[in-house]
Amino acid sequence: MTGTHETAAQLDSAIDSIIGVTRGPVALEETELVATARLLRHSLPRLHPSFSFEDLLAARLAAARRMELAPATAPALSVAPTPIRPGLEIGPPGATMHDEAHDRRRRSLVAGGAIASGVSLALPIAGAAFVVWRRTRSSGGLL
Amino acid sequence: MFWKGRGRSESAAVVVPFDSDRPAVEAAKQDPDAFEQLYRKYVAQIYSLALYETRDPHAAEDITEGVFLKAFAALPRFREQGEGEESTFKTWLYTIARHIISNERRRDRRHPQDPIELALELRAPDDPAATAETRLETRRALEAVMELPPERRQAIVLRFVNELSAREIGEIMGKSEGAVRVLIHRALVSVRQRLEP
User: Is the omega angle on the peptide bond into residue B57 within 30 degrees of 0, that is, cis?
Assistant: First the structure.
């Protein structure tokens, strides 16, 4: 084992201890790199997706099971580039990943935009209608 | 740890580390509904890797979805391997994730969030009492990791966030255990240098 490999192996043991996979206490020489490893342990938390996403994907997997996406007939695992979006076909024709709430946040934005656009369109229309109604009423009253 | 003899002869048994997911994997092969157990166990790990790699929550969700749908579809053909090609369900899943992340990065160059923004997002919600100094230190450490070359960064994330061993990372990245240790050592040296005032 070369010096570099030996140093790297010692550091690896220290990391094991820092991330807590080593059973029992381990005496660590507090070198600069060990301190850096401790800092990274603290600074790089594991992140959870939103519960809504987690449940949504669980439902999608359940749907795949219901659709009898028979694992035996599923496409072979390949290390070749695989399209994720849009339209990663999984299951029967027409069942794509790019439906429903797959991109719900983006869709929400789109929906929000549509609502905003709708409101911006609806207000002048409503205003115009009100003016027409008032004029009609006023005209009717005068006539 | 359970060791299983798989030798060509009894005197030269090859040992294969017991995959703690084996019962769940076998159950999922028999009953697809049982796949949810594996999904719930690993969803945060895969999402974390994807988020650190893409720095884009939308892309991370897409990748996570792709990984589990692919794994679900390919599960019947998954085989634990030994004799120099050790593969557990976990490393197999991460290998799928790594390929999809790599492919995603090539295909769809969305603008990643700024590392500082990511750092703030990471720490702010669950760490309101963190001192300004701690936040700054965290932010700088994150920046340093994000600026690492991709291979070093991925090794660091797999080691510190996903708590994989050097051997497991080697399986995923197609490297020897020793090479991964050296990779991580060099990555930490780089981070240390970037953190120095």
Answer: no
Contact at CB, A71 and B104, closer than 8 angstroms: no
| Cβ atoms of residues B172 and B96 within 8 Å | no
Q: Could you state, in order of their start, the residue ranges of all structural domains in chain A? A: 3-43, 51-102, 103-143
Is A15–B184 a contact, with Cβ atoms under 8 angstroms apart?
Answer: yes
Interchain proximity A65–B33, CB inside 8 Å: yes
- Residue A71 has its nearest CB partner, among B32, B107, B156, at B32
The residues with which B3 forms a beta bridge, in sequence order, are B17
Q: B78-91, pLDDT tens digit by residue?
A: 887 654 455 789 99
Q: For A45-83, how does the pLDDT look when each residue is reduced to its tens digit (9 = 90+)?
A: 888 999 999 999 999 998 888 775 555 544 544 444 444
Q: What is the DSSP letter of A96?
A: B
Q: Does B14 touch chain A (CB under 8 A)?
A: no
pLDDT score of A94 more than 80: no
Q: Which residues of B touch A46 (CB under 8 A)?
A: 44-45, 48, 161-162
Average pLDDT, chain A: 61
Least Cα separation, residue B29 to chain A (angstroms)? 8
Residue type, B58: H
What pLDDT is recorded for position A109?
28
CATH fold label, B1-7+15-112: Rna Polymerase Sigma Factor; Chain: A (1.10.1740)
The partner residues of B4 in beta bridges, in order of sequence, read B16
Q: Is pLDDT above 70 for B146?
A: yes
Residue A106 and residue B56 in contact, taking contact as beta carbons nearer than 8 Å: no
Whether B172 and chain A come into contact, CB under 8 Å, resolves to no
Mean pLDDT of A77-103: 42
